[in-house]
């Protein structure tokens, strides 16, 4: 069991039933397979309605899947063994209004059946980890959103879980608040914890996660490091060469189509030329062509697609949603 992955999801399906006599149904997850290794920070990405919350609820045992199996650290999702080993920060955690940070932690500690002395000593350490020392006796309702999220992280860590599931931990935070949460997540990862993060903020995920999964319409579109995903969707989006040039406009207008490049005028009279450049020889050829046409090069940059571009490409790949699903019989 010690070798079991932090999260192991096999062919998970979820069908919701709705309406009169549950006659309407909707397949929110359609055969998701996912493995999260121990000790990694893993990001779950997907557009609204992709099924991210449904997947998280299945992992936590809040919602039952209608097919497949999920395990946390070798324990069936939702079992006592799994629940004891996972810490959860929900999207909008509301603390009781009359609690101070210390009282809130005591409240959650008791819910987890922790001993009073253990709660006291862990609360001190955790308030230190999340940067709330000195503010622990203030009412939580007077906290900023960032402080509440940091206290939420401390709450999730109180029973010393090996795996943390964080649902939109930086939603609604300013850049300072977001960087504080990132700092804490990195510290937790350095302590050997596994962090599973659901976030809409792609930059965030790119900065903090080792690997990401992209989910859309209930199906996984890709899993890997941001650079592996870039390669996976390379066919749709290759590396680009962005060059700031100046010179005779008529020469530029001729050269643009020859290089299959886009030209955009810049405010200072220069031009931004954007062309595909998958290899160094593509770069050399473009530069030689510009220089031999007496064009001056002011700035040159080779850009890989951003995670946002990869995400959009992954989400827009042909969906087989209209094909019959191979959903297994309900369990
Ligand atoms: N209890 C429910 N009954 C019926 N349909 C549901 C239920 N919960 C979710 N759904 C549907 O399942 C799909 C996936 O929802 P889910 O909340 O998992 O998506 P999400 O990726 O978390 O979206 P968001 O980013 O907007 O929170 C959506 O189409 C949603 O309307």
SSE topology sketch:
Elements: E1 7-18, E2 24-36, E3 41-45, H1 52-60, E4 67-72, E5 75-76, H2 80-85, E6 86-89, H3 101-111, H4 116-129, H5 145-157, E7 163-167, H6 175-190, E8 194-198, H7 202-208, E9 211-216, E10 219-224, H8 226-232, E11 240-246, H9 249-258, E12 262-265, E13 271-276, H10 280-292, E14 296-303, H11 307-315
Helix pairs in contact: 3-4, 4-5, 5-6
The structure holds adenosine-5'-triphosphate.
Defining key terms:
alpha/beta; Rossmann fold; Alpha-Beta Plaits; 2 domains; 6-stranded mixed beta sheet; globular; ATP hydrolysis activity; hydrolase
- Give the CATH level 1 class of the largest domain: Alpha Beta
Output the number of helix runs: 11
Taking pLDDT < 50 over at least 5 consecutive residues as the criterion, the unreliable ranges are 321-325
Output the CATH homologous superfamily of the largest domain.
P-loop containing nucleotide triphosphate hydrolases
Biggest sheet statistics: 6 strands, mixed
Keywords: ATP-binding, Hydrolase, Nucleotide-binding, Transport
EC number: 3.6.3.-
Domain ABC transporter: 7-242
Protein name: Putative ABC transporter ATP-binding protein YxlF
Would you mind describing this structure in some detail?
The chain is α/β, with parallel strands linked by helices. It folds into 2 domains: 7-232 and 311-315, P-loop containing nucleotide triphosphate hydrolases (Rossmann fold, 3-Layer(aba) Sandwich); 240-304, YebC, transcriptional regulation domain (Alpha-Beta Plaits). Helix content is 35%, strand content 27%. It has a 6-stranded mixed β-sheet, with helices on both faces. A 4-stranded antiparallel β-sheet has the order 2-1-4-5. β7, α6 (175-190) and β8 form a beta-alpha-beta unit. α3 crosses α4, α4 packs across α5 (145-157) and α5 runs parallel beside α6. It is globular. The two termini are 25 Å apart. The model is unreliable at 321-325 (pLDDT under 50). Residues 16, 18, 26, 28, 46, 48-54 line the site of adenosine-5'-triphosphate (ATP). Adenosine-5'-triphosphate binds at residues 16, 18, 26, 28, 46, 48-54.
């Amino acid at each position: 069991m010690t070798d079991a992955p932090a999260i192991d999801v096999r062919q998970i399906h979820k069908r919701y039933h709705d309406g009169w006599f549950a006659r309407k149904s909707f397949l929110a997850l359609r055969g998701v397979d996912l493995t999260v290794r121990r000790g990694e920070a893993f990001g779950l990405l997907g557009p609204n309605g992709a099924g991210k919350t449904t997947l998280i609820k299945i992992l936590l045992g809040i919602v039952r899947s209608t097919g497949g199996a999920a395990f946390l650290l070798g324990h069936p999702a939702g079992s006592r063994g799994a629940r004891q080993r996972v810490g959860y920060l929900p999207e909008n955690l509301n603390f009781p209004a009359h609690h101070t940070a210390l009282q809130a932690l005591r409240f959650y500690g008791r819910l987890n059946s922790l001993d009073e002395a253990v709660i006291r000593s862990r609360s001190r350490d955790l308030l230190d980890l999340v940067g709330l020392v000195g503010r622990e006796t203030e009412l939580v309702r007077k906290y900023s959103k960032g402080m509440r999220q940091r206290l939420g992280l401390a709450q999730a860590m109180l029973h010393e879980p090996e795996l943390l599931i964080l649902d939109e931990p930086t939603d609604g935070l300013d850049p300072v608040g977001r960087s504080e949460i990132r700092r804490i997540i990195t510290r937790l990862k350095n302590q050997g914890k596994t962090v599973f993060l659901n976030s809409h903020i792609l930059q965030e995920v790119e900065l903090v996660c080792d690997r990401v999964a992209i989910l859309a319409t209930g199906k996984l579109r890709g899993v890997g490091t941001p650079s592996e995903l870039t390669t996976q969707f390379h066919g749709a989006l290759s590396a680009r060469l962005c060059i700031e040039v100046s010179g005779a406009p008529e020469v530029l207008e001729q050269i643009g189509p020859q290089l299959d490049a886009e030209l955009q005028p810049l405010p200072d009279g220069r031009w931004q030329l954007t062309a595909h450049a998958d290899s160094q020889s593509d770069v050399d050829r473009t530069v030689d062509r510009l220089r031999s046409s007496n064009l001056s090069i002011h700035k040159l940059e080779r850009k890989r697609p951003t995670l946002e571009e990869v995400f959009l490409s992954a989400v827009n790949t042909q969906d087989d949603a209209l094909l019959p699903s191979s959903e297994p019989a309900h369990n």
